[in-house]
């Protein structure tokens, strides 16, 4: 049994490289969703499907290029492989598709990894 989230993955208990906690995750997704809503409102008169599409595109583009979405980076987090390293190109697509379904993102393991991260082989860590 692990004494803290991320121990099984070899991550530190706190500080840089530790698992991103719930408060930071919620703030990051709220930032990303708010930005997607603003763009949707400006160009599509706030269409729900357009907002979701913009949100997904931002995730898919920014995770491989800057290590996380703008919300992740503002909250000082990054997406990486579970055992370290670049998430690659296909993992952000799988992770985002599952995140957009919502249910996989709210099912967590002992390491505070959502099902979307487990399936993609990624983890959200503090930077």
Sum this structure up briefly.
The chain contains five helices and two strands, in the order αααβααβ.
Description:
Helices cover 51% and strands 8% of the residues. The protein is mainly α and 127 residues long. The chain has one domain (19-126). It has a two-stranded antiparallel ribbon with strand order 1-2. The longest helix is centred in the first third of the chain and has 23 residues, at 22-44. It is elongated. The model has no long low-confidence stretch (mean pLDDT 96).
Features of the shown structure:
single chain, 127 residues, mainly alpha, two-stranded antiparallel sheet, 2 strands, elongated, transmembrane helix
Give the mean pLDDT: 96
As for the number of domains, it is 1
Main sheet specs: 2 strands, antiparallel
User: What is the number of E strands?
Assistant: 2
Globally, the shape reads: elongated
What's the N-to-C terminus distance? Answer: 26 Å
User: What is the structural class?
Assistant: mainly alpha
- Percent of residues in helices comes to 40-55%
Task: Indicate the low-confidence ranges by residue numbers.
Answer: none
Biggest sheet, strands in spatial order? 1-2
Proportion of strand residues = 5-15%
